[in-house]
């Protein structure tokens, strides 16, 4: 697999983006004043919608750069497993071993702190870890300000470095949401946001076979596959197994971008 330097999308000018957003609102005020409220309101709604879209749509890249697939025509994919470590981690590691597959585990700091041995096991068995925030504040992450984001992202970065001896280079947004301030801690800690190109919506009402079909239906060369662990429905290992069987049947390899 390509060296990660070619894949990294660390935000280069997060403050410039924030400045441009501020300027856009100055422009709204000027249009409102010079051309009337109808034009001003229309421009205000358009600029706000653009920010809301980039915040809520996980693959939107204009606010904070994101890697959504790997630039390769080879039959290889990047498996990413979010929300651990969990009670599923060891079973999922066994499944990956059985299929000689590798994955990046995007881990939550507080869960890693509670089960540091699982972080050790992930790394010892040849996988990688990424940063998935300190507390996984799924309801609030989209509206956190710069300080809270530094605690969530930078705090987790430090914790994972202490636990594993290495600083992650990949970051996965909590429930995929990314507001304009997320670029600040990513730039500070040299992190690249990783989105995905194949997912199964394995949320609350999870039907494993449907989830597997949704994921495998989106698999193509260079796909980044979003999986989870530790969900209450308990089907995450079964879903991983289905995906691994599909990859083997279709002649896909898994790859692990290295820093
Ligand atoms: Zn998550």
UniProtKB/TrEMBL annotation:
<dbReference type="InterPro" id="IPR050248">
    <property type="entry name" value="Polysacc_deacetylase_ArnD"/>
</dbReference>
<dbReference type="InterPro" id="IPR011330">
    <property type="entry name" value="Glyco_hydro/deAcase_b/a-brl"/>
</dbReference>
<feature type="transmembrane region" description="Helical">
    <location>
        <begin position="39"/>
        <end position="57"/>
    </location>
</feature>
<feature type="domain" description="NodB homology">
    <location>
        <begin position="75"/>
        <end position="255"/>
    </location>
</feature>
<feature type="transmembrane region" description="Helical">
    <location>
        <begin position="16"/>
        <end position="33"/>
    </location>
</feature>
<keyword id="KW-0472">Membrane</keyword>
<protein>
    <submittedName>
        <fullName>Acetyl xylan esterase</fullName>
    </submittedName>
</protein>
<dbReference type="InterPro" id="IPR002509">
    <property type="entry name" value="NODB_dom"/>
</dbReference>
<dbReference type="GO" id="GO:0005975">
    <property type="term" value="P:carbohydrate metabolic process"/>
</dbReference>
<keyword id="KW-0812">Transmembrane</keyword>
<dbReference type="Pfam" id="PF01522">
    <property type="entry name" value="Polysacc_deac_1"/>
</dbReference>
<dbReference type="GO" id="GO:0016810">
    <property type="term" value="F:hydrolase activity, acting on carbon-nitrogen (but not peptide) bonds"/>
</dbReference>
<keyword id="KW-1133">Transmembrane helix</keyword>
